[in-house]
Amino acid sequence: MSDTKEILDAVRTRASLATADVATAIDACLRCVQTCTTCANADLAEEDVDELRVCAARCLNCADVCDATARLLSRPAYSDKLTILRLLEACVRACENSAEECARHARHHRHCAICEQVCRACIQACAALLDSEAFEEFQDRR
Amino acid sequence: MSDTKEILDAVRTRASLATADVATAIDACLRCVQTCTTCANADLAEEDVDELRVCAARCLNCADVCDATARLLSRPAYSDKLTILRLLEACVRACENSAEECARHARHHRHCAICEQVCRACIQACAALLDSEAFEEFQDRR
Amino acid sequence: MSDTKEILDAVRTRASLATADVATAIDACLRCVQTCTTCANADLAEEDVDELRVCAARCLNCADVCDATARLLSRPAYSDKLTILRLLEACVRACENSAEECARHARHHRHCAICEQVCRACIQACAALLDSEAFEEFQDRR
Amino acid sequence: MSDTKEILDAVRTRASLATADVATAIDACLRCVQTCTTCANADLAEEDVDELRVCAARCLNCADVCDATARLLSRPAYSDKLTILRLLEACVRACENSAEECARHARHHRHCAICEQVCRACIQACAALLDSEAFEEFQDRR
């Protein structure tokens, strides 16, 4: 198990988001940075790179959005819910794009199969945060 | 002048966003990564660091969101407008938070004055993109 | 357990570095990005922020170097050993700086205690890679 | 002209590196993040993507190392010369790899021609820093 929840609990702030949910989302985002970065690199080395262009492009976008999301979620003190809301929305969307394209290649490429699963876990973790009470006030802005 | 527009024009894709506007936004985001990173570092070294906590925290968030935004905007091929829309919204918001807090310290700290201006230029460049025709289809989702 | 080793093994390349060691280093780097980012944020929110300036500054540097290191290690195909060697050296050094400063505050601040441990684990994982046979050819350049 | 030097000069620290040289290196690194990110994306959209695999892979590594280098150079307060030395060395090497491969495609692809030039400017800016008096003490460790 990671230390993410434990260090979040050590930050002196009145968290509006539940640290357990935030920790799960951070860890899911960081896993996604890893697998998407490797999947895009693996795509470049495949014989059928021609078929994997979209996959590589989407995985790179997903890695960068997940990276920023993990970083902002890792800063509970002086955080801003609206920034995080928009970033989580961008993150879910980027992960959906990546998962969808990886799914098309999952039977032929093991890296795509793994990456799809990790992206789906990230979607779930971010969606859980977005559906939490903390974002209720923005319900009409989503 | 930067090469940003020129290299964007060299990408083989049917850009839905005008490359001149995208180039302006990318360059504004990268400038913001720079000044926000330095402003947060400068805050830590000030005698009144106590007063600059919020400034440092907001600048760090701003730098990370601007970094991801610059990266996604730099990938016109196989891009996804909805991901970019949410990211631009996150970026504008993060820049507003940073600009607002820097403004409070601008008279006492030169780094805050510079950072405020750069954040405001970034808000303007991102808002111009968001207001462009390319995002018209999402008008009701904003 | 993470999927890191499994996805690395799925990349079509003659890895010169053992994927098990690389996976350990990647995961350690990503953990370090997380804890260092949160530790710097937590520092800003402490009453004795005045004492924690150096800690925040060093943790921010450590997070950025670990991020880049995790990304490059996640791209085994078409990788360059000398770039990775220098990056691993930068990473070990940045983690040492961060661990050393966190250690000074570990008794008073739980986030520093956690961060110190995670930095030390990262040093160990990167040092193990640096000491591996793969980097033997650069022995005289270190 | 960018604000980089001006904001660096506003940081309360005894800079061991000349801010003019640091500012030049930061701006060169950020330009390199931009062009390398776009070049890798453009590679994926070319008919001869098969020939451009190495170019895309190297450009992605270059972008990430340049990003981290720009960030650490942007933090003059509480900085550590040895970390920066190793990072600059990694940066020069990553830029060389990228420039060399882009050069092979520069006649056929405008994005590679631009990217090569920007990488070479970054090599020059980082090498100038490495050759400066500030790193003299490490002369025997290079």
Strands, helices and their partners?
4 copies of one chain form a homotetramer.
Chain A: H1 4-9, H2 19-44, H3 53-73, H4 81-105, H5 110-130
Helix pairs in contact in A: 2-3, 2-5, 3-4, 4-5
Question: Could you explain the architecture of this structure?
Answer:
The structure is a homotetramer of 142-residue chains. With 142 residues, the first copy, chain A, is mostly helical. Chain A contains 5 helices and no strands. Chains in contact: A-B, A-C, A-D, B-C, B-D, C-D. Chain B binds chain C through residues 40-41, 44-45, 49-50, 53, 56-57, 60, and chain C through 40-41, 44-45, 49-50, 53, 56-57, 60.
Provide a concise account of the structure shown.
Chain A is mostly helical. Chain A is built from 5 helices and no strands. The longest helix of chain A has 26 residues, at 19-44.
Distance between the termini of chain A: 33 Å
- Spans of at least 5 consecutive residues with low confidence of chain A: none
Which of globular, elongated, flat, extended, rod-shaped describes the shape of chain A? elongated
Helix percent of chain A reads: 55-70%
Helix and strand pattern of chain A = HHHHH
Largest sheet of chain A: none
From the alpha carbons, calculate the radius of gyration of chain A and give it in angstroms.
16 Å
Give the largest interface pair and sizes: A-C, 41 and 41 residues
